[in-house]
Amino acid sequence: MAKVRLAPVLRSFAGGSKIVNAQGDTLGALLTNLYQSYPSLKEQIQPEQELSRFVNVYVDDQDVRYLQGLETPVSESATVTLLPAMAGGR
């Protein structure tokens, strides 16, 4: 199973866990599996068919927007990082 690292702002949707496990051959399949265990994460990560534009998703430190999006392959040893975009300033 791949490891899914959750940013602090998402941990409350996964019982406070920093890292959870999920499985799937592609990012889309892995996220579907993740939502089965933590349904409230779906609204934060993928409220529509596509990923939220306000969440950065990385597979082994590579931004999936520059790979194959939800079709990005995910190996059993992969680390997927879910990192909501942060805004700041005045």
UniProtKB/TrEMBL annotation:
Source organism superkingdom: Bacteria
Q: Which SUPFAM superfamilies did the record assign?
A: MoaD/ThiS
Question: Pfam families per the record?
Answer: ThiS
**Membrane spanning segments where?**
none
Q: What is this protein called?
A: Sulfur carrier protein CysO
Per the record, the gene is cysO
